[in-house]
Each structure stands twice: as structure tokens, then as C-alpha cells.
Design goal:
Blueprint: H1 5-28, H2 34-51, H3 54-76, H4 78-82, H5 89-104, H6 107-126
Helix pairs in contact: 1-2, 1-3, 2-6, 3-5, 3-6
């Protein structure tokens, strides 16, 4: 598999899109809504259209999802990391772990993967790259 700079940029953008949708939802309410799930699917399909190759999509999904999970956790624990939450920060950090994993497994995880495959199919069919 040949990794190009464009592929790395698409994977990084995919991770940022996943993170921004999830964090935006979790700051407002404790769970993702169907609108958030549709946005995750669309972002994944667009990333799959840019990556086109199925192998690149699978590797990109793994990297983007892992990076998005880490970034989501860091953004939710930012007050604790910066030391501005005081003693309650430890409780917030442990709660953030549970909140992140409840919100991204299993439905968003599967739909992000399916969205990437769907985008790869569309990318091959319409030769987007």
C-alpha cells in the first residue's frame, strides 16, 4: 500500500470530523442523536470517496477512529488536564471515559465503517480520484 500525503490529510480530516460531531453532541446532551449518526455516515462516505482504495479505507478507518477516540477523550477532559476543575476533575475524567465509549460503540463504529465502504464504492464508480 502506497501512502500519499493526500491520504494522510483525508484520514486526519476524517478523524477531526468524527471528533467534532461527537464532542459537539456530548457537550449538549449525553448521547448521540440520529442527526449526529447521519453526519458521521456522510463524513465517512466523503472520506471513503477520497481514499477510493478499499485497503486505504480500512487502514484509514482504524487510524481515524483511534485518533478520534483519543481526541474526544482529551477534549472532554481538558479542564482536568489544565488543572482548572479542582478535585472534581478526577470524577469528570472517569465519567468521560464511560461517556466516550458509550457514545461511539457499537452503532457509530459500525456506521462509520459502512460509510467508508460506501464512499469507496462511490469513489470507484464515479472515479473521484
Amino acid at each position: 500500500m502506497k501512502v500519499e500525503l493526500l491520504d494522510l490529510a483525508v484520514i486526519a480530516g476524517w478523524a477531526v470530523a468524527i471528533t467534532s460531531i461527537i464532542v459537539n453532541s456530548l457537550y449538549v446532551r449525553p448521547l448521540l442523536t440520529w442527526v449526529d449518526i447521519v453526519l458521521l455516515f456522510v463524513a465517512s462516505a466523503m472520506s471513503g470517496m477520497m481514499l477510493v482504495d478499499l485497503e486505504s479505507v480500512v487502514v484509514g478507518f482504524v487510524v481515524a477512529f483511534a485518533l478520534a477516540t483519543v481526541m474526544t477523550y482529551i477534549l472532554l477532559c481538558l479542564p482536568t488536564i489544565l488543572g482548572i476543575s479542582g478535585a472534581i476533575g478526577e470524577v469528570l475524567s472517569s465519567g468521560a471515559v464511560v461517556m466516550v465509549f458509550r457514545s461511539i460503540f457499537p452503532v457509530p463504529f459500525i456506521l462509520i465503517l459502512i460509510g467508508g465502504f460506501f464512499g469507496s464504492f462511490l469513489g470507484e464508480k464515479f472515479r473521484t480520484r
